[in-house]
Amino acid sequence: MTFELIVRILADYSVFAVVLIGAYALLLKVPKGSRYQAYTRVLMAGLTAYLLAKFIATLYQPSTMRPFEILGVEAGASFLNNPGFPSDHALFVMAIAWAVWFETKNRLLGLLVFSLVILVGVGRVLALVHTPLDVIGGVAIASLGALWYIQKPGGEKRKTWRKRLSRTTTLS
To answer: What are the DSSP calls for the chain, one per residue?
Structure first.
């Protein structure tokens, strides 16, 4: 296998593996009684990350050219015709990784998808379609979108704070 083929597999085809594993996990490993809430959180986390990425990209773009354009070589992987920050591929696979991690509670599948996220990011940089900053930006923004998973169904968080508040007021 040539280096270019390995890079293309990492940069492009690993995304398909993430999607397939994510679909399997989210369709078959999420408990039946909580699927609606889980899928709602997945949708909101993904939309939040995507909109946040597009907003940040309008405000900040470290370079108008991608690494392969600067070097005057051919791109080693597929890419969208935009400056590249943040990486849409990294954003997409990281959003799926967080969904699998939080919604399935299956640590093995979660770690497998996170490992693939790293491989996709490395592949995107080696293919010269992104800089490390582009990939880190996509991962970070997807992680911000993942804040939706912190919510507890049924307002359990509020009850916890009420209990703590009532304990401190009764002690004083």
So the answer is: --HHHHHHIIIIIHHHHHHHHHHHHHHHSS-GGGHHHHHHHHHHHHHHHHHHHHHHHHH--S-SS-HHHHHT---SS---SS---S-HHHHHHHHHHHHHHHHH--HHHHHHHHHHHHHHHHHHHHTTSS-HHHHHHHHHHHHHHGGGGG--GGGHHHHHHHHHHHHHHHH-
Domain that holds residue 89: 3-171
The pTM score is 0.84
- 92: tokens are 């997409």
Contact yes or no for 13/5 (Cβ under 8 A): no
Number of domains in the chain: 1
Q: What pLDDT, on the 0 to 100 scale, is given for residue 143?
A: 96
Average pLDDT per 10 consecutive residues for the chain, totaling 172 residues: 91 96 95 92 95 95 88 90 91 97 93 97 96 96 92 53 57 54
Cα diameter, the chain: 71
